[in-house]
């Protein structure tokens, strides 16, 4: 017995998966895509405070690192046809939760109208010697 399923063209659109790479900076050698566009969303891999022009970790404290990390997220979202205004969920990883309020001050300057849902997690260490990493999920038109 054969079973047939009718899939509409709109459903096919949401079943596609597309890797997103911003035009700026160095490409990671890690086996990951900076962003994946699928199902009307863009899923942004954990971004870190590395300047894409130099490949170097930004100097300064948690404020400067948070700023660069969110700017990196913004570049990926723009490459996918989205923006920070369309972010619906973020996960923030901090190596020192006592820096939460300083990170949050910078973070909240980007997400002031309708802030996305967010989790913040303290971790013992990140992949490189940094203080913050942020993942994001955003809507794509």
Automatic annotation (TrEMBL):
<dbReference type="Pfam" id="PF01042">
    <property type="entry name" value="Ribonuc_L-PSP"/>
</dbReference>
<dbReference type="InterPro" id="IPR006175">
    <property type="entry name" value="YjgF/YER057c/UK114"/>
</dbReference>
<dbReference type="InterPro" id="IPR035959">
    <property type="entry name" value="RutC-like_sf"/>
</dbReference>
<keyword id="KW-0378">Hydrolase</keyword>
<dbReference type="InterPro" id="IPR019897">
    <property type="entry name" value="RidA_CS"/>
</dbReference>
<dbReference type="GO" id="GO:0005829">
    <property type="term" value="C:cytosol"/>
</dbReference>
<protein>
    <submittedName>
        <fullName>2-iminobutanoate/2-iminopropanoate deaminase</fullName>
        <ecNumber>3.5.99.10</ecNumber>
    </submittedName>
</protein>
<dbReference type="InterPro" id="IPR006056">
    <property type="entry name" value="RidA"/>
</dbReference>
<dbReference type="GO" id="GO:0120241">
    <property type="term" value="F:2-iminobutanoate/2-iminopropanoate deaminase"/>
</dbReference>
<comment type="similarity">
    <text>Belongs to the RutC family.</text>
</comment>
């Amino acid at each position: 017995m054969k079973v047939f399923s009718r899939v509409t063209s709109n459903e096919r659109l949401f079943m596609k998966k597309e890797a997103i790479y911003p035009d700026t900076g160095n490409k990671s050698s890690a086996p990951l895509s900076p962003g994946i566009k699928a199902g009307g969303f863009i899923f942004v891999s954990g971004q870190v405070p590395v300047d894409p022009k130099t490949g170097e970790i930004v100097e300064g404290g948690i404020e400067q690192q948070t700023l660069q990390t969110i700017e990196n997220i913004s570049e990926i979202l723009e490459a996918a046809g989205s923006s920070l205004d369309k972010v619906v969920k973020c996960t923030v990883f901090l190596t020192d939760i006592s820096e939460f309020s300083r990170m949050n001050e910078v973070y909240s300057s980007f997400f002031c109208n309708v802030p996305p849902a967010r989790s913040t997690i303290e971790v013992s260490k990140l992949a490189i010697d940094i203080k913050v990493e942020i993942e994001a999920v955003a809507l794509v038109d």
